[in-house]
Structures are given as structure tokens and as C-alpha cells.
Write a structure and sequence with these properties.
By secondary structure, this protein is an all-alpha fold. The protein is built from 9 helices and no strands. The longest helix is centred in the middle third of the chain and has 53 residues.
Length: 248
């Protein structure tokens, strides 16, 4: 007896029993790697080198905060249990989710900005669009920032969080649970260095969790990691493009 189309599709999305078995290990490894890696990079490179805002050296340590936890912290796990993330060109339907995802992402950011600045300014945290990140010392640095923070780092984050973590956890906690847990991990990665329990930490955690849900939802709807990557990249690119326009 052959499997039905529905059963085959479900098995393709979940990845088989080995993913169910490895899901909890991946989740634990994620927390340990992100906590340790980000702590070392943020408090080591930043405190001891203090790169000037808007410089190429600042871009370097920002890039390191993305790659060090992933490559070092979980390199062993993926070497043993990793599975390739399937990538395919977006369909017409996928492009609709891209457009909708970008709109929702900017609306989410707008709501966060208005809410924090109006009602709780102490909780405001705009790491992705702070002065150092979007006020480059030259057009060259601005272009490099655009490529790095809207391309390279977004590709790594989406491959890791949505393409790998969310895929593994889907078989453990279901689609909705996988989106939620992955969003929390995504937020933890971004706000851990702010100090647990501080107002910026709380505000940033809410914001990045919401953004993680946006990216995770479009991934669940399309099962194509190119879609959340494109949404994330277009969202991140906005401030850099605006600055480059003013510099040119």
C-alpha cells in the first residue's frame, strides 16, 4: 500500500522521526549557544574594542554576533544531525505572502514605536535602526551595511531560525507552537545582551517576538524559507536605503 499524497506531504514537512527525536536537543542547544555566544561577543568585542558607530569595524562585530553563536555553538549538532534547508524560487502565491509580510512587519514596527514612545519610552529598543547602524561614516559603509544587515545576516537568521529550528520543532509542538517557540528564541538572540528584566529587554523581547511570529507565519504558510528571508530583508533594508538616498 502506498502512502497518500497528504501523508507524504506531512512527512516531508516534519522530516521524519529523527527530527522528532532531535527537536528537544536542538531547542536546548539553541538556548545555550545563543546565550553563551552572544554574551562572549557582545561583552568581549564591544567592551574591549569599542568600535566607533557607523564604521566598518562596528559592522564587523555586529556580523560576529550573528555568526559566532551559530557556527561555534551549534556547529557540532548540525554536523551530526543537520538537514539541508530546501530553497526554491517563490511562486505567485508566495509573492503575495511576501507583500503581506512586509506590510505587517512595518505595521508591527510602527505600532511598537508609537506605543513605546507615547506610553512607555523606557521600554523602547530600536537595535535594528539605531544611529550607529544607519548613520554610516561614508556611502561605502552604508552600502556594506545594507548588504550585510539586509542580506548576509538575514540569510543566516532565516536559514537557522525558520528553516532549521522551526522545522525541527514543528514535529514536537505543532505548527503554531513551532512559530511561537522559534519567535521567542529569535527574540532572545536579539535582546539577551540588554540585561534580563530591564525595560529595554522587556520592550525589545515583545517587539522581536512579534516580528518572529510574522516571519514564522509566512514560512508556515509557504514552507519556503525564501519567503521569510525576502520579507525580513526588505524590512531591514528600509532604513539603510533611506540613509543612502540622503547621502547620495
Amino acid at each position: 500500500m502506498t502512502d497518500s499524497t497528504e501523508e507524504a506531504a506531512n512527512r516531508s514537512r516534519t522530516g521524519g522521526p529523527e527530527i522528532v527525536r532531535d527537536g528537544p536537543a536542538l531547542a536546548l542547544g539553541l538556548v545555550v549557544a545563543l546565550t553563551g555566544g552572544v554574551t562572549v561577543v557582545q561583552y568581549g568585542l564591544v567592551e574591549f574594542t569599542s568600535p566607533p558607530a557607523g564604521s566598518l569595524s562596528e559592522i564587523g562585530w555586529r556580523l560576529a554576533t550573528v555568526f559566532v553563536p551559530f557556527v561555534v555553538g551549534l556547529g557540532g549538532f548540525f554536523a551530526v544531525r543537520g538537514r539541508p534547508v530546501e530553497v526554491s524560487p517563490p511562486s505567485v502565491t508566495d509573492l503575495g505572502y511576501v507583500a503581506g509580510g512586509v506590510v505587517v512587519a512595518y505595521l508591527t514596527f510602527g505600532a511598537y514605536v508609537v506605543g513605546t514612545t507615547t506610553f512607555a519610552p523606557a521600554f523602547a529598543h530600536f537595535a535594528g535602526v539605531d544611529a550607529g547602524a544607519v548613520t554610516p561614516e561614508s556611502v561605502l559603509v552604508g552600502v556594506v551595511s545594507l548588504v550585510v544587515f539586509s542580506g548576509v545576516t538575514v540569510a543566516v537568521e532565516e536559514w537557522f531560525f525558520r528553516g532549521t529550528v522551526q522545522t525541527y520543532l514543528r514535529s514536537v509542538v505543532g505548527s503554531a507552537g513551532a512559530v511561537g517557540v522559534t519567535a521567542l528564541c529569535f527574540a532572545w538572540f536579539h535582546v539577551w545582551p540588554l540585561g534580563i528584566g530591564t525595560p529595554p529587554f522587556v520592550g525589545g523581547a515583545v517587539y522581536y517576538t512579534a516580528m518572529g511570529i510574522v516571519f514564522g507565519s509566512v514560512y508556515e504558510a509557504t514552507d519556503n524559507v525564501v519567503v521569510p528571508f525576502t520579507v525580513h530583508a526588505l524590512f531591514n533594508a528600509g532604513p539603510y536605503v533611506a540613509v543612502l538616498v540622503t547621502l547620495s
